Amino acid sequence: MRKLRLLLGAAILALPASSISTPVLAAQAAQAAQGTAFAALSKRYVDGLARLNPSSATALGDHRFDAQITDMSAAGRAKRAAFSKAMLADLQRIDRKALPREEQVDAALLDNALRYDIWDAETLGGWAWDPQVYNDIAGSSLYALAARDFAPWPQRLNAATARMAALPALLAQARANIVPARVPSIYATTVAKQNSGIVDIAESMLAPHRDTLSAADAKRFDAALASLKTAVAEHQLWLDKTLVPAAKGDFRLGAALYDKKLAFALQSDLTRPEIKRRAQAAIVDTRAQMYAIARQIFGAKPGALLLPDKPNDAQQQAAIEAALELTYAKRPPRDGMIDASTKALAQATAFVRDKGLVGMPDGPVKIITMPKFQQGVAVAYCDSPGPLEKNLGTFFAVSPIPDDWTEAQATSFLSEYNDYMIHDLAVHEAMPGHYLQLAHANASQSTLRAVLGSGPFVEGWAVYAEGMMADQGYLNGDPLFKLTVLKMRLRSISNSLLDIGIHTEGMTRDQAMQLMTHTAFQQEREAAGKWVRASLGSTQLLSYFTGYSEHMALRDEARTRQGAAFDLKRYNDALLAHGSPPVRYVRELLFDLPIG
Q1: Measured distance CA(79)–CA(260) in Å, rounded
Q2: Backbone angles phi, psi at 383, to 5 degrees
Q3: Of the residues 297, 380, 526, 582, which has the maximum number of CB atoms within 10 A of its CB?
Q4: DSSP characters for 53-104?
Q5: What span, in angstroms and rounded, lies between the C-alpha atoms of 362 and 440?
Q6: CB of 134 closer than 8 Å to CB of 170
């Protein structure tokens, strides 16, 4: 598209001056001026984002500030707020309609991000009641330096030394900023468990490479590490003795704040009531599909009782549960999650390549044990290199089973994350899910768009990828894998009802567990973990279902528009070529519709 615009521009310049009217020339000059202004604004935003959030900058791939950490003092927060307000004022001076279509989308993303940042700092104010904010900054500050080989070890270790020396001040800022009575208990107890993970990163990921330093630098590293251990121990004492006992805040966001945050997070016309209505209908439809597969499975067995065409609720529940029991029986050993995930990833990658479902990325992907400071929220995640990073690998992180779990708890967990589910996780997190999609996004032309990716687009693509693999016959079309994919889809749908119910309707833990374990067929350990995850955050859990719904609607529209000419790989590649904006904008770009 950009090359075409350049060619058209060259053709216009080649025309005799007399053949181009003055109004046309004026319009072209105005468009060029607006484009130049927006390009400068975009560059200033990305630069400022890194400068004011150095802990995040390293993960983005901007290494100018690797020796600094994010300042969470009142002065530091004021600088970020002033930056966002100044950027928003400058953006409002630009005529977006005069920009090329791709840049109109980028401008809309930037506008949303700036307004969200301002609202988050001034209205939501998590810095005063969410200790996860500080834990994430501290952990990511060191992890981003340790995890990827973007520079030689001495350079990264010296930056880590500076950050370790600065982290005690960050932890002190946390204790100064946080109002214990406003902190929800679940937030306090979770961070108290994760706090020691900061030292774990330093000792297990950084310290083993200490021998690459000069004697003087090694001495400074040791001193910074000792200071960090003392500070983390002091912070642990505060967490255990002050924060945890005093934490009485409500983890439920409430309808007013939730709806505002939802609008920022989705950038969609979908409202909370509409999402709930769609989710309730989707649960009915998905369970019906699962029942049809159960009939297929049991009807194929000699002497099996035929299940009725129109079952009652109890019959449907029993049939699906019986079919899922067949998947639970095939599970890895307690210490086998990493090995099983590695094999599943290799198999999924070979399948996508052989089927030619979508363009394949070049960068490597590595399965790792999830760092301790991240454990306790999700079972797995994809950690892709930042959009400013080049030629570095992606991590598919898998959480280990906690050492203090009983065998019964471990068996419950592994029944949920059985062999079929591990294949589905590999599809979702890596191939052709997050790893593949984010590799395409980071290769897109707009750095700003890569930085401001849409969560619903990203998560929705991953759920879409699961369904695509099942539809294309992954694992030889095994009906138990198809059943697992539908179970995962049911989980994403129930996630939306869970998120809405907890934060706006007073859903209790018992009600949530009933939804997850009965309606969505989740194991107790998975459901218990999801209750914690849903309590620790808001709006992210519904990004899976909303994004998936929008992706499927877009593909259906493309099929209708293109008819017999529709090609799945061509569609997927065209979709991913636009990065990770909200699906509504991809639709407008794909079908040449007005941006807005």
Answers
A1: 24
A2: -115, 95
A3: 582
A4: -HHHHHHHT--TTTT-----SHHHHHHHHHHHHHHHHHHHTS-GGGS-HHHH
A5: 10
A6: yes
What residues are paired with 383 via a beta bridge?
A: 395
Which of residues 528 and 20 earns the better pLDDT score?
528
The model carries a pTM of: 0.89
CA within 13 Å, CB half, 29: 7
Q: Tally the domains of the chain.
A: 3
- Claim to verify: residue 57 and residue 25 sit in the same structural domain: yes
Give residue-wise pLDDT tens across range 319-369.
Answer: 999 999 999 999 999 989 989 999 999 999 999 999 999 999 887 888 888
Residue type, 300: A
The DSSP code for 471 is H
Enumerate residues 6+ apart whose C-beta is below 8 A from 513: 524, 527, 528, 531
Helices (H) and strands (E) in the chain, counts: 26, 3
Question: Exposed/middle/buried for 80, CB within 10 Å: 0-12, 13-18, 19+?
Answer: buried
How far is Cα 566 from Cα 573, in angstroms, rounded to an integer?
Answer: 13
Cα pseudo-dihedral 14, 15, 21, 22, rounded to 10: 30
Q: What's the CA gap between 100 and 277, in Å, rounded?
A: 37
The Cα 167–Cα 215 span in angstroms is: 23
Based on the domain organization, do 346 and 369 belong to the same domain? yes
In the DSSP assignment, the letter for residue 384 is: P
Contact status, residue 239 vs residue 135, Cβ threshold 8 Å? no
For residue 225, the enclosing domain spans 128-246
Residue 261 lies in a domain: no
CA 421 from centre of chain: 19
* Cβ 407 vs Cβ 362: under 8 Å: no
Boundary (domain end) residue, out of 246, 279, 300: 246
Percent of the chain with pLDDT over 70: 93
Judging by DSSP bridges, how do beta strands 380-383 and 394-398 pair with one another? Answer: antiparallel
Helices 132-147 + 153-177 axis angle, to 10: 180
| CB-side neighbour CA atoms (13 Å) of 503 | 28
Task: Specify the DSSP element, H or E, that contains 394.
Answer: strand 394-398
- Rounded to whole angstroms, the Cα distance separating 470 from 432 reads 12
CB 473 within 8 A of CB 134: no
- The amino acid present at 507, given as its one-letter code, is M
Count how many residues are written for the chain. 596
Distance separating alpha carbons of residues 47 and 447, to the nearest angstrom: 11
Q: Are residues 119 and 181 in the same domain?
A: no
Q: Are strands 394-398 and 365-369 parallel, antiparallel or unpaired?
A: parallel
In 132-247, the DSSP E strands lie at: none
